[in-house]
Amino acid sequence: MTINGTDLQIAFCGSAGDGTIAVGDILKQAMAMAGYRVIAFDQYPAEIRGFGKCVSRTRVTGEQVYSMKQQTDILVSLDDSHAIPHASEVRDFGAVIYDNAPMSLMAEGEHISGHLQPGQIPYALPIREISERATGSNRGRNMVALGFVAGLYGLQQDVFHTIIARKFKTKPAAVTTDNTAAFDAGFDLGAGEFLFDEISIGEPPAKAKHEARMLSGNSAVVEGCLDAGIEAYFGYPITPATTIMERLVSEMPKRGKRALQTEDEISAIAATIGAGYAGVRSATATSGPGLALMAEMLGLSVMAEVPAVIFVSQRGGPSTGMPTKTEQSDLNLAVFGGSGDAQRIVLAPTNVEGCWRCAGKAFEMAERYQTPVIVLLDLYLSNRYETVVVSPDEQFEPNMSKPMVKGKADEKYQRFATTDDGISPRAIPGQLGGIHTVTGLEHNDMGRPSDQPNIHMDMSEKRHNKLAKAIDHPGITITKRFGDEGDVDVGILAWGSTFGESLEAMMLAREEGIKCAAMKVVMMSPLPEQPITDFMDSASEVLIPELNYEGQFAGIVSGTLGRPVNRLNMVPGTPMRVDDILAEIRKLAGRDKRDAA
Amino acid sequence: MSSAPHLVIIGNGVAGNRAAEILREKDKDCRISIISAGPLLFYNRYELPDVFKGRQDWRDYLENPPEYFSDNNITLRRKSIVADVDTERRKLVLAHREEVSFDQLLVATGGSGYLPERLQETAHLTHQFTTYRSAMGMYRDLPKGGRVVMLGGDMIGLDLARTLIETGYHVTVVPGDRTFWPHEISAEERPKYLSALETMGMEVINHGEVERIEDTTGSAAARRVVFVSGETVAADVVVTQYGLAPMVDFMSTAGVDIERGLLVNPQLKTTRDEIYAAGDVCQIWEQESNGYRFYYGWRNVRKMGEISARNMMGEEVPFETEVDEHLIIKDDGSIDSPFWEYSA
Amino acid sequence: MSAELKEPVYLEEKLKDIQDSGRLDFRSGSLPTWCPGCGYYSMTEGVTNSLNELGLKNENVVCVSGIGCASRFPFFVDVYGFHTLHGRTLPVATGIKTANDDLTVVVVGGDGDGFAIGGGHIPHAAKRNVDITYLLFDNGIYGLTKGQTSPTSSQGFKTSTTPYENREQPLKPLMMVLSYGASWVGQAYAGHQHHLADMIKQAIAHRGFSYLHILSPCVTFDKTNMTYQNMSMAVRPLPEDHDTSSQMAAMREATKTDAPGLGVLFREDRPTLGDNLDAIARSAGADIKPGTAQAAE
C-alpha cells in the first residue's frame, strides 16, 4: 500500500548505549517537521543495565496510518548481534545498512552481511571509522548512520540540523557540533552512494492546516489531560504507564496544578477519587497489576458516583507477567473488575490521536456521568509515536458536571435524586447547602445507607441507565467502519492497538479481491450494541483479532450479543502481525494464499 | 554449524553461479556460499549496453530471481571482499574482519578492468564499463547524442560501441595494444579490423599514445584527451577498455601457484587439492603448447564453472574448449566475435 | 462524666446554652447507632464542639471514614462526608486535601482500619505532612464485625478469631506514628471527655498531619482488657515538664503503654503537602503565592 507516494519504514537496531533510540527520535522528529506523517515504535531491553537490544522503528507516510508495516524497508545495524535476527524483516529490494569495518575479528556468522536475504540490498560503510574521523570519537556512529540514510534518500539535511540542535540544546555546544559533524559525514557518503533499492520518498503532503505534534500514546494521554484542564494527578510507577506520570509531574506544576506520587496504586486511585469528590478533574495511570489493586476502589467510585479517570496501559500478564511486552489481556479486568454490578465506562483508543481524544473525553464523561472512566491502552500504543494533527477548534468541555441548584431553605439536598436525565445534581465540598455524605454502602436518594430491596434495585438501575447515555457523548467516535460497504465476506471487529494491523490486513485482503470491512470499537463499556450488531449482520464471518489468550473481547461480544464470532488470539508479546490477520481473513473467505495470488 | 561440507565460491559471475548450480544439483546437503564484492545478485553483464536503450532497472538484468538463492539454499554474501585466504586453517578472512571456514574453495573472481599505469592518476576522469553500476554511471554522464572517446577498445568496449552508435551517440576509438582483447590480432591483420570498426560507424583515430586526460567541465565537452603528440580530442565521456586483469591479489598468501592468473590443471584444480578456479581468473594447463593459457567468453567461462563443480564433487573431468576464438568480419563489413555470444 | 449523663434534668436545663453555643449545628439529623457507652459518642461530641469552637463553616469541613465502628461517623456530623473503603481513609483524604486546601479534613477510624488493612498509608500521610486530622479510636478489637482480634488487641485476649488466646504482641501505634514523622501526635481517653474534646480541637487546629490516639473501651466485646475500669486506672496526664518539641521525649512516653500518658506528645511546624506542592509549582514557574493554603486557627 503506497500512500501519497511515501510509505517508508526505517528500523535502527543496536545495543543499549549505541544511541539507537536517540537517532530514531531525531529521524521521526525531522520527518514530522518536514511535513510527513510518522508512526514509530521503539523496543527497549527489559534489563536496566547491560547491552540489551534496542530497536527503533519509524514508518514515514504521506497520510497518517494506523500501524507499523509488517516489513521494514530499511534496517540500520548499529550492533550486528542484535540486528541479525531482524534482517529477515526487511523486504525484498529493501536496504540493510551496516558497518563493514568493525573493531574486532568476528567468528563466522557474527557479521550481518552473511545474513541478508538475496532480495535485500546491502549498503556497507565504515561507520565507526567515519565517526572517528568526523568527531574524534566512535560515539557518533548512530549519527553517521542516520546521516547516511538521509543522504542516500535525499532527505532534507537542514531539517535534521535543526532537530539535532534542538535535541542537544541543553548540552554543551560541542555535543551539537559533534553530532552534526557525524551526521554530515554520513550524509555526504549517502548522497554519493548509488541507489540499488527500490525505496523512494515522495514530496511531503501539502502543509497540514494545523501543526503536527509528535506524540507517543502516553504523551498524547498527557496532552489530553492538560488540554482537558487536569487539576490533580496521583500515580504509582509501573511499566508501561510510568511515562504518563513522569510527564505530568513535570508539566502540571508549571500550570499550578498538583501531581503526587503515592505509596501504591490503591492510594493513587483513592486520592484520585478523593480529589474527584472534592470537585477537581483528577486521574491516575497504571498497568494491569495496578488496576487489579484498584478494583475495589473502582467499585467505590461507581457506588458513590464520584468521577475518576484511570489510564491503563496493558502489558503481558497475568501477575507480573511480561512488563516490557505488549498485550490486550486486561480488558475483562477493566470492564468487569471489582465486586458487584459495577459498570463503568471503558474507552480503548486505537491510535495516538485517539489517546489524546479519549483522555480529554474521559474527564468529560467521568464528570458528566459521575463514574469512573478507564482509558485502556497497551504497551505498543503507549510507547509508539505518531504525528498528531488536531484542529485547535477541537476542545474539551471545561466542566461537564451537573450542578446542584440551591432549592428552598427547607428543601433538603438529595445527592442521589432520580431525575429526568438520569443524572443526579452534584454538590462539592465547600458548597453551601449541598452537604451530604457519599458512601460505598447502598444508599437512598439522600445518600443515607439503606439495604431495602427496592432501593438497591432502583439504584442499580439508575447507575446502569445513566451510562447508556455515554454512547451518544458528543465529540468522540466510539465505533467506525472502514473498507467495503454493504455485505462483506469477512468483517473484522478490532479494538485497541490491534485495530491498526487489522485495518492494514483488511486493505490487503481487499486488494486480493476479498470483500472485507473492519470496524474499530473504541467504547468497550457500555458496549455500543447497535452499531456492532449492524456490522455483524453485514458480514458472513466476523473475525475478532486480539492480543490475549482467551479472546476477551470476543467473549464480551458473543456473550452480550449472542452471536458466533471467529477468534484470532495470540500472546507473542509483540504487536499482532498483519500477515497473521490476513491469513485468517483468507481462510474465512474460503481462500488460501494460492487462490488469492 | 552443520557438519555438511562448506563449499565457498569467491565470485558472483557466470563461472561462480554455474558452479553453484551444479554443486547443488550434485549435493542437496552441502553448504554453498557465494562471496561477492558487489551489492547485486548475479546479473547478465553482456546485456549492460542496453542501459542506453532505456533498460535501466538492474533487476531486469538478473539471471535468477532472489528466491532462486533461497530455494536452492545458496548463501550469498554481497559487499564482501576476501582479504586473505588461510589455507592451513581453511579459513577466509573477509575485509570486514569476519572469518569464514571452507572445506573446498572455488575462486571465480574474474577480472577487473585493466588500466595502464599512466592513466591511473586520472582514473576519476574516465569511465569503465564493467559492472551495472559503472554502466549507469556512464549513462548518467553522457548527454544524449554525445561523444564517447574509447581508449583501447577491447571486445567488451566494442560491443558497447555498437549499441552506442545504434542509439545515436558518437564513438571515437583510440586503438592501442589491447584493442580487440581478448583476441590476439597480428600487426598485419590489424588495419583490416580497424577499418571494419569504421564501417560500423566508429571513428578510429591514431594520434599515438595518450598523455593525459583533462577535466574540461563547463566547456562544450567535459573531457579532453591529450596525446603525447600534442593533439587533443574532446569528449563528453572517456571510457577505458583495455581488457581485464585477473583478480588474484587476495590469493597471494594462499600457497597456490600464480602467474598472471591462478594456475590450474585441466581439471581446474590449483596446486592445492581443496582449491579450484574457474573463469577469467585462471590459466589452464595446455598440453599442446606446454603452457598455461586463459580462455575467455561466456561459453568457456560457463563451462569452467560446470567442470570445476563436477570435479569438486569428485569427478575428474578435464576442461576442453568448444569455442572457435577467432575474430571475424561478416559480409556487411562489421566484425563479430564468439566473445559476444551468450545465451540468457 | 457518667454521673453527669445520668441526670437528664441537667441536659434540659442546659439545652438553651447548648443550642446557643452553635455546636448542635454540626450535628446531623441522624442519630448514632453505636452501643450505649461507646467512646464514639465522646468523639462525636468532641468533633462537633471543636469545629464549632474553631469557627469553621459546615460546608468547608469534610469528614472521611473507612470501615469499622467509625464508618458511619460522617453521617452523624453535619459536614461533607465520605464513607470510603476499609483502610483507605488517608489516601482519600489526601486526595480531597490536594484538590482543595481550603477544606478542613477530619479522618476517623479504628485500630483495625488504621493499623491492619490501612497500615501502609499512615507513614506516607505522616511523612508528607498532609494537613488533615486523623482521629484513631483504639479499642483493641474489631467491634463492627462482632469481636475479632485487632492489631492492638492485648496479648492473651480470647476473641472469636483467637479462641485459644491472642499470642501476638500488640502494635504500639504512638511509637510508629512518631517514627513516621507525624507533625502532631497526641493521646486521649474516651473516658475523659473534656480532655478529649480539647485534644481534638488542638489536633484540628494543627497545620499539618495530626494524629490523635484515642483509647476507647469497647463495652460490648471486651470485658477483660481495655475496659473503662482498667483504663481509668492506667491513664495519667503527661508530665507537666514534657517537652512536646522533643521526639525523644515523645518516644519515651509512647513506650509506656501500661500507663498511657494523655496529652500532646509531639508537635512541630513544618511545610505541609500543600505547601510543598505549591513550592514545586513555583519552581516550575507557576504564579502561586506562598502561604495561601488555609490553616485552621
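qc> The longest strand of chain C covers residues 104-110.
qc> done
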